[in-house]
Amino acid sequence: MKKINSRYSLKSVIASSLVLGAVLATPVASATTLRIASQHAPDQYASQVLRQIKADLEGAGVDLKIKLYPAGQLGSGEQLIGEAVRGSIDIVHSFVYSHKDPVLEINSLPYLVSNYDEMEKVFSPGSNFYGIFDQRMDKMGLKLLGVTAEGFIGVMSSSMPENYTTTGPKGQNIRVWSAQSAKLATKDMGYNTTTIDWGDAFPAIQQGVVDGMIGATPEAAYTTFKEAIENYIPYNAFVENYAYYASKKTWEKKLNEEQRRVITEVFAKAAAGFVDWSRENDAANLKKLEEFGVKILPLTDAERSAIATEIRAKTWPKLEDRLGKDILEKVKADL
């Protein structure tokens, strides 16, 4: 039998143990955790999409872990912008307010689009609108990942308006929200206006303080206001729109190139799906309103287009001081 040198055997064992210990002690790279905040209630379509986004990102094999915070848990839309700029929230899905840059109010332009084909074109990468929105958010420290169109906004009322197919006088005073663009456009559409908060709009209509309101999609009209109204006019004057955006601090310092690529693709796909959903959801809720007893006052494509053309010609110039004539001209070129 061959004799074993115990001294060298012991050295080998010790060396092997040290190597194994070093391997076991090496930390395994942990997944990058992203906090995503939104304003939508958990049962809304946008929240369903976010849950799919979470599944897609975590299943992409690029070491991402997602924590979702829906329903304004981490703050209002204005607060979320500030938190994302600071990097304390990684990604947001919310309305983009213009309190830090007035040009961002282009997302609230009356008749920015007036039909679903225009909606798809203008809210997609490659349009002038999207490029301007992207650039202005970048200057704030935010990375735009997509714009989500969540339905057209019309006018609802508790009585029959006059001249509803044109911009002629309507003989009605309706609720409008606080944005200057909304006030100017609604007046130019032929309505008298009163500024009332969303939460006070239902009793204001029901008690006759105002004759109706502008500011709700067919879905919101059905779920919140159907008991207080008799008519709904699908003017498509504004779009209920939100945006996916990331903190640039997260984008540049927290994520690697492969993670950025996956996030870009996943959010772009999600945003693109909203136009078809809006088309179907608007139609479905107009039908629900009608079945409930609310009369849908129809507009032909030609009538709606004529109103849109007149508002762009009459209302948009009044917004030049705030938004800039060159900005408005570029956005108008998309149409």
UniProtKB/TrEMBL annotation:
Q: Which Gene3D superfamilies match?
A: Bacterial extracellular solute-binding protein, family 7
Could you say which residues form the signal peptide?
Answer: 1-31
Q: Which Pfam families match?
A: DctP
Q: Which InterPro entries match?
A: DctP_fam, TRAP_DctP_sf
Q: Does the keyword Signal apply?
A: yes
Give UniProt keywords alphabetically: Signal, Transport
UniProt-listed GO biological process terms: transmembrane transport
Origin: domain of life: Bacteria
Stated family: Belongs to the bacterial solute-binding protein 7 family.
- What is the designated name of this protein? Transporter
Instruction: Identify the species of origin.
Output: Amphritea opalescens
